[in-house]
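Quiz preparation item.
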């Protein structure tokens, strides 16, 4: 098995496009919306523009597992040269990710090099680790989610901020994610993007978290669709409140 494009993007969630778009729109844009008061109730707990400064809890007994092929030996790739600006960007990102509980210093025998794409984003090249993984089969059910709203009268959609980073990584697998930085070796405490099993773990977690709310919602990757058949706006707002309450309880 070979791979040519298995990359783990490690973009600073504090500068994510979603968060910046949310900040620019503001709550004033929602005034006059029938759901405004309900949404405002969750302004500080659900509609965050930054991830909390702590590693996420294990939800519903689910952690992401990295299953390597038998006989896999530690994979270490030498770091190539970086410009002063690139080194500074990576150092700033590393500091913020440690504070956010997303990564920690590592002593792993595994090591992936890093390189910058553009500020404030950079990525770790993990093609060799991905090629050592078992393949996972997973496809989202976008057609079902998109068709369902055709027969409903109330429809809302939201997405989770940096969804994979909200799924804890199994402790035994953390060393596999180690990558080099100007300040040394670091490793993920949460699910990295780009690994073959990440989408399946994330979807399985959300399906369990919201399993008893499927009468009013569907999930497609990190998108949450809330729908109601009734023309009663209050009924849709009540459904929206149920979903947001669950997000608050689960710290999503």
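Solution:
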């Amino acid at each position: 098995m070979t791979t040519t494009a298995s990359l783990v993007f490690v973009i600073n969630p504090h500068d994510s496009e979603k968060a910046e778009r949310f900040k620019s729109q503001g709550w004033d844009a929602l005034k006059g919306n029938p759901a405004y008061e309900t949404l405002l109730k969750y302004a500080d707990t659900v509609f965050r523009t930054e991830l909390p400064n702590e590693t996420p809890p294990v939800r519903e007994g689910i952690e992401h597992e990295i299953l390597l092929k038998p006989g896999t030996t530690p994979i270490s790739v030498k770091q190539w040269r970086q410009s002063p600006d690139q080194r500074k960007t990576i150092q700033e990102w590393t500091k913020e990710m440690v504070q956010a509980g997303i990564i920690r210093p590592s002593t792993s025998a595994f090591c992936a090099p890093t390189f910058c794409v553009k500020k404030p984003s950079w990525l770790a090249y993990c093609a060799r680790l991905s090629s050592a993984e078992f393949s996972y089969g997973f496809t989202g059910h976008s057609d079902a989610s998109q068709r369902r709203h055709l027969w409903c009268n109330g429809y809302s959609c939201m997405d989770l901020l940096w969804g994979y980073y909200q799924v804890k990584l199994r402790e035994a697998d953390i060393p596999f994610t180690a990558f080099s930085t100007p300040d040394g070796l670091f490793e993920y405490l949460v699910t990295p993007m780009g690994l073959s099993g990440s989408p399946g773990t994330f979807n399985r977690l959300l399906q369990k978290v919201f399993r008893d709310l499927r009468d009013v919602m569907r999930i497609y990757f990190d998108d949450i669709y809330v729908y109601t058949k009734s023309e009663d706006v209050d009924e849709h707002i009540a459904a929206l409140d149920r979903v947001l309450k669950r997000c608050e309880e689960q710290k999503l």
